[in-house]
Write a structure and sequence with these properties.
heterodimer; A: 304 residues; mainly alpha; 13 helices; globular; B: 284 residues; 0% strand; flat
Chain lengths: 304, 284
Amino acid sequence: MAEPAVRHLPRGNRSALSRRPLTGMLFVAPTALIVLVLFLVPLGILLYMSFTDYPLLGAPTLNGIDNYTAIPDDDLFLGAIKFTLVYTAVTTVVIFLVSFVLVAISNSTRRFSKVYRTAYFLPYVVGTAAASLMWFINYDTVLGVYNDLLLRVGLIDEPFAFLASETPAFWSVIALVVWKFVGFQVLVLLVGLQSVPRELYEAARVDGANRLQQLRFITLPYLTPTIALLFILSVTGSLLAFDQFLILTKGGPDNSTISLVYAIYNTAFQTFDLGRAAALSIILLLALIILNGVQLRLLRRRDA
Amino acid sequence: MSTRTTARSAAASVSFHLVSSILAIAFLFPLLWAIINSLKTPEEANQAPPTLFPTSLSLGNFQNLMDYGSGLPVYFWNSILISFLTVVGTVVVSVLGGYGFARFDFWGKKHLFVAVVAILMVPYATILLPLYILLGKLGLQNSLIGLSLVLVMFQLPFSILMMRNSFESVPRELEEAALVDGCSNVGALRHISLRMVSPGIVTVALFAFLASWNEFLAPLIFLNDASKFTLPIMLVNVRSGSYGAIDYGALQAGVVIAMVPALVLYLVLQRYYVNGLLNGALKS
């Protein structure tokens, strides 16, 4: 019965479905409502807040650009900017270096390579908070297993205080973060590798190209967009890091591991200065939007 | 093949597996160590130096958490509820939205889509502050429902893209035939397309679950009431130590409870996670 009816459908690009705009609007209404109420309105409120003196408990009063002009004197925030930039650079470089080794293993055709891949990825599924607590326990000088193992192997003679001074604390966080996030990068790179046509390698082999040349002239060009995407994800993710610092180092020692988001959190909920915190958020937001814009532009140019 | 090359490739194979498995153990060790420790007696778990193998198995560490604060069951339930609400909300909104974006033309479609993607570009930590104020005004502060709504919003870019792509790969003709046969739009969606996009739905649900189950900053800001806390927030409080000393055994048990559901779900639904990366995250 359906056969003859189908013939009455309009021809061309516009189908019977796309010509029912009202129904379409109904379907996206929940999306629109959520985007409006929970995203666009808060963005507006954030902008407004940044121009007010807004105590956590109490009414806001407009104070112009005071919150912004106070930023250059805000040592907590300036320190956080510097720390977050260093942290972002180091994390991104280390994760990339480690991930290339792990990708080589996971992409092998040898037995068990899928098992290895799963092992490297599993920490990513654990929440950052739980993972940070796990490492916090393991780093303990008295009860922690890392000290115990190092002592047993004989690498150290007395317990090492992982989190007590600046440089060790920094690298202890890096170790946790690499362990936690590198698996995700490995998985994305593997997905990217699958998009390289097999025939290219065969052709290259016939032409006498060695492994290194295949990597340089086939694999890397195909992976460039994936690598660029991972770079963006790593940079933006690191600029927003929070959980691991609040939990693992509590920002210490001597406020040396306070990230940007941590500084904003402290300004809002420790010093109860919501207006200032909003101004700091706007600065962070603008920086990330500009960064994303530049990176996307570079990405597109490379893609084209 | 000469014996020499066979020997060399055997050596290469051995060293490959040696390096790979040492790395695999290094990655799995903290997870296994937390599980081992959680199963020691509370005394053994808090004893220095740590014992590598438990001398006796015990659920004492979990029992100690039962009475912590409002009690482990309350926090576990809160986490389950938040994740459930977020998963259901994300799936419903993104199925409807993805369908609308894939099948219809309407005024403002492009702008709305740009706004959805913009959520991805705007770091979520920066708008938690106004959301905190706004939820207060809406009477949703300190509420699990308010928190879930926020978490749904953060899942929208990925899940809408995922569902739109899924619906676009279902031929329109199937639905159009149903419409002509007298099916309503919702009927056509329910009986025909929904079945075909179910892998996409599983993917969206899995991503939403992992994100909401593990979320830390948003509940830390939005929830003030100790009886409303989720597992990660409870754990940070356990870490702070109620009487000065930290109960490491209880903390390990809490970490295990927080991570095992996510690990199990991932291991069962691995395929959907990788497909999600292929079809949703990377193509956007």
